[in-house]
Design goal:
4 copies of one chain form a homotetramer. By secondary structure, the first copy, chain A, is of the alpha/beta class. Chain A has helices at residues 60-69, 80-83, 88-96, 100-110, 117-128, 140-143, 147-151, 179-185, 198-206, 224-228, 234-251, 268-276, 286-289, 324-329, 341-351, 357-360, and strands spanning 2-4, 10-13, 20-22, 27-29, 38-40, 43-45, 49-51, 72-73, 75-76, 135-138, 157-161, 168-170, 190-195, 211-214, 258-262, 281-284, 299-300, 316-317, 365-367. The first copy, chain A, is globular and about 55 Å long. In chain A, the strands form 5 sheets. Chain A has a 9-stranded parallel sheet. Chain A is built from 16 helices and 19 strands. Chain A has a single domain (12-367), classed as Aldolase class I (TIM Barrel, Alpha-Beta Barrel), CATH 3.20.20.70. In chain A, strand 7 (49-51), helix 1 (60-69) and strand 8 form a beta-alpha-beta unit. In chain A, 62% of the residues are buried. Strand 4 (27-29) of chain B pairs parallel with strand 12 of chain C, so a sheet runs across the interface. Chains A, B, C, D: InterPro entries: Aldolase_TIM, IMP_DH, IMP_DH-rel2, IMP_DH_GMPRt.
């Protein structure tokens, strides 16, 4: 439906995950009949969840732990772990700050330390040595510079992740990243985003990416809405990108590009809704930042928070609810959607009569 | 009206009871002209209210008291009263806990005590001996196991109640409950639910049930929305199920299956709206949990709250507003819809010119 | 626009005054060009405002004061001033109670004192003696009983005011008030309400009333929404009743029945919107209860609050903002719409280019 | 879309800036490619921002400072700086008052001091002497009286600013300002407003104005909604006035009248949205009142706040977030849209693939 915003503008309504919900259907299933396996490229995961490459969520240790639980952890390759030989004192100092303004200034300061190629290689080696799938991320701005170290680090997946990533970046100052060429040259499957619209997603799919991230920065920590006026209601964005997946599948003669919801999913119910909107998998920040092992120690922030001249994100207090294992696989002792996320996915499919995510993507939604 | 949730999803708007209201009509009536009698199967009640089989609401004593006031009390046959010979100390301990997290863990612990068939029989006998109508409930999972004790306990109504009950439950692990067969075999009228859609309701009606419950767990205590992303806006759900009642009436050549709204009615005005949406009766949790006699002692919780791995409900503080008799029949000393629920029903019909619930189901609603 | 509330109900959207607003137009006027005079029956008032017959607002003294300021004060003839020879101690006791529950019980108690015909006569005489227009109100239930004292008290207007008043009241217990017959017999112009729909209003206009009240109890103090599920969004109700005025004007060959918005107008901006929706005048409760002279002493309540078995209103604290004269005519020292209500009406018409209420009723609204 | 507000009224929905948002597009640009220059009449500014002529925002000193940063500061020529030789003690006294009611009375008192023509001339000379562009404002009521001092003060722009300014003001009491004649006679480009609708804007454009202000008083401080029921949702208003600009461009054979959003933009994201709705520039109050140099010292108020009989605005506490230079040009240390407003504009255009404001006016909006 289009609304008239005065005489010279029309606008479509966009829906957040909170605007929609799922209703029970006429069928129910036993929980034991549900299969959550997620296969992307050559690897099959126990459940369709990635851990977001955010310094409050992923360290080499938590990436390994998340992999062992059955998901795909992604290390931020331009974060504290590749800027500092030992980032722990920096993380501790940050966690000790409670004032929001002071935290922003501290973030702006600690991220001025340069990224080191050798630390990228070392952190990835640490993960690879444990045998879990290895994934790391860079922003488009840094991807070119560290391409060779990425090439040689035995990654299973490389993630190009920025607030808004387009296949058509125009720049005067430098040679912009040619995504299609980069992906063609790289011998590792690439996941790229965030994107928010049908057109952007289609263009990104054409670059050869194995998956696209849907979103615009990590939502709980993002203040893009206040600073830039830009906002991505996720239900609409996921549904749009899922349509691009279908059209590209036809256009490409059968290449299935995975749609991965990234951000705005604070509770397990939000993850369920993201799948119901058409996502194949979800990349989680806030829910995992609540784990006791998370490097943020109860705090959570994204890359927007440390921009030197225009921070567009804030550090938020998310608390600590249980071990990473309890958060992901349960058992839960908290009825608020913060624990046993995989169990909740399983239960949601069972309660609505579906056995697998692919079919669940077709479930009817309601507008609340 | 259908909304576009992006390019690949359309969704209908669903309305909660809070989204709608009743406007006065051109006629008013004297309060003495109103008849609230509710006849289901062989029994006629003074008013169309059932008490929810929740441990914070119904004990044998409150079931008896509610029956004496003129309604139908339903005892939870898999709750504390059939797990413990004397549940009072357990209830007292629970009431003494104020911390939410501690309460969840306590609930998870106390409900691990097994259900005892002999206690089911004993509790039902206690109610039956007083001469009030006798009703008890089990979840679909436990119905088979205790079928024979149910059979032999002289019940007036048996209630099969789960979060989502379907006539088409699919399971690998065990022989699922065949509702139609079970109801055919049982010599007691069965009320079954919750259900939330036209199709599910129609299927449940075809099993031979005397009534269907509309809802998805007790709403005030439920966190299904956060944990599972599933939500049942009640105005829409009741209206849908009322349509199923009409269509099934035709299909069956005249069998009238009662539509009983279950949950999401915290105040008397909500009960009025539920009837206006098409319900024949309402099953009350929160309003009765506020009675001084209620076993919850000012606290209220549902079956979702005690799941061992994925609790999807919380214990909520509802307070104590007056005696059960004042809550149901008045007089009220509180102008907030928590007391004299039957008087409020009567007054609502009088103010809008109706003498009975059946006609009142046709009143116009507005969207607020 | 009609919404589907599930398969068996459709509902129109109804708008409150808060849902709508006025936008400036292409014309502005000097404040001195505005004429707010309101002529109803034989009397012309300086501005189109009545004071609500509520005990927290109107005493004989404030009715006189309001009349002297240029409006029409209406005394509640079944309130404390006609139950007690000297109600001041009762009012003082009530004002000293701060607890809400205690206040409700006190209200239920003090209004059990019977109404006295001789006090009705005496209070009205007191007002008449000052030369201001005299008006009093009774509920439909009490109108018959005190008809003769009304007849002989030299009233300029008699107001029949109940929560919901219809021309078609059906009752078993007693001979209901025949409004048309009563109005025909009475030698005083009658204003009657509340009503909320086109049909009810049209029926009330046919009884011969000089004006109809639009509303459903005093909104700020009313809890009908919680207790009964009944709610009257005022913008829609006024617009509906204004249409009835037009249709009745045609049907009757020229009888103009005044549409008087009653309640839900807490601030001067709400009064402006009520006129913009089609009202000829407004009856004010809350705004006048804020006057230092108001008998409520900073508290406000309506007749629903003292029902012995089912109170449907609460006493609310409205505070005291200035003298009655400042509240009505200014000057204002508070930029929140609580003072200089007449000045605000004048300014609103000037800012939007209108000189009188009748034309202002045609101004365009927006939905916010 | 038109809504039925009952049977006799229809109303269009109007949208605030908060109701809408911008989504990323398929293109992104480097921040260095963005050009924010704003050319109006003979002057080119570095960015399309004006400072609002409010006493809490603009003193001669801050007008100069804002001009030096690259924008257009506008001094209120009927404010404290032209009433008092030294307003500093008055500002200090006001800042020391924390009680809202006391602040309103103080404002009513201090603005009774008459405006002095010689102070107008002196304040403008002070600004002119620094070489920055000079602009001052009067309300329509005072414009005539001080026309000659305006004429002779070497202004680059004169602003006629009132709550609602129309080209068709009707008055009995005095000869109203003939805007078209005044503008024709004055040898200085005139910016005039606020206006809120297509028609009013078109009429104002026909008076020969160089720019029109869109708005209805400074929104953060305004209480017109409560006092008068009048409200201007800005997204709709800007879009309407932008359409008037297009139609007048055609009608006039090429005269481009600038559309300047005035008020309701508390954060940089709101400014971005205003441009996206069709504005050429924005006049800022609240954001600049947060600068340490602002005369309000952390408080903010508009002209409506000091009306002697009907104040329609309140003094609000906005706090102090950084220097004027940091607020306008950064760097920002606060991720909430209060700092580096120009940087945020630049970033918003870059993130959505636009290089200049004129093209950005065509970007698609969504309704949130």
């Amino acid at each position: 439906m289009l609304y008239d915003i005065g005489r010279s503008k029309r606008a479509a309504q966009a829906f957040s995950l909170d605007d929609v919900a799922i209703m029970p259907t006429r069928r129910t299933r036993g929980i034991e009949t549900i299969d959550l396996e997620w296969r992307i490229d050559a690897i099959t995961f126990d459940f369709p969840l990635m851990a977001a490459p955010m310094d409050s969520v992923m360290s080499p240790a938590t990436a390994i732990a998340f992999g062992r639980l059955g998901g795909l952890g992604v290390l931020n390759l331009e974060g504290l772990w590749t800027r500092y030989v030992n980032p722990q004192p920096v993380l501790d100092e940050l966690a000790a700050i409670t004032d929001a303004a002071e935290a922003t200034r501290k973030l702006q300061q600690i991220y001025t330390e340069p990224i080191k190629a050798e630390l990228i290689a070392e952190r990835l080696r640490e993960i690879r040595d444990t045998g879990v799938p290895v994934a790391g991320s860079l922003s488009p701005q840094n991807t070119q510079e560290f391409a060779s170290v990425i090439e040689n680090s035995g990654l299973d997946f490389f993630v190009v992740r920025g607030t808004a990533v387009s296949a058509q970046h125009v720049s005067n100052a430098a040679e912009p990243l040619d995504l299609a060429r980069f992906i063609y040259d790289l011998d590792v499957p690439v996941i790229v985003g965030g994107c928010a619209t049908y057109q952007t997603a289609l263009h990104l799919m054409r670059t050869g990416a194995a998956g696209v991230l849907v979103g615009f920065g990590g939502a709980a920590t993002s203040t893009n809405r206040h600073v830039l006026g830009i906002e991505v209601p996720m239900a609409t964005a996921i549904s749009d990108v899922a349509e691009a997946r279908r059209d590209y599948l036809d256009e490409s003669g059968g290449r299935y590009v995975h749609v991965i919801a990234d951000g705005s999913m604070g509770y397990s119910g939000d993850v369920v809704k993201a799948l119901a909107c058409g996502a194949d998998a979800a990349m989680l920040g806030t829910p995992l930042a609540r784990a006791i092992e998370a490097p943020g120690q109860g705090w959570h922030w994204g890359a927007e928070a440390w921009h030197e001249a225009l921070p567009r994100g804030r550090r938020v207090e998310v608390g600590q609810v249980g071990s990473l294992s309890e958060v992901v696989l349960g058992p839960s002792h908290s009825p608020d959607g913060t624990m046993n996320i995989v169990g909740a996915l399983r239960r949601a499919l069972a309660s609505t009569g579906y056995t697998e995510v692919k079919a669940f993507q077709r479930i009817d939604l309601i507008v609340r």
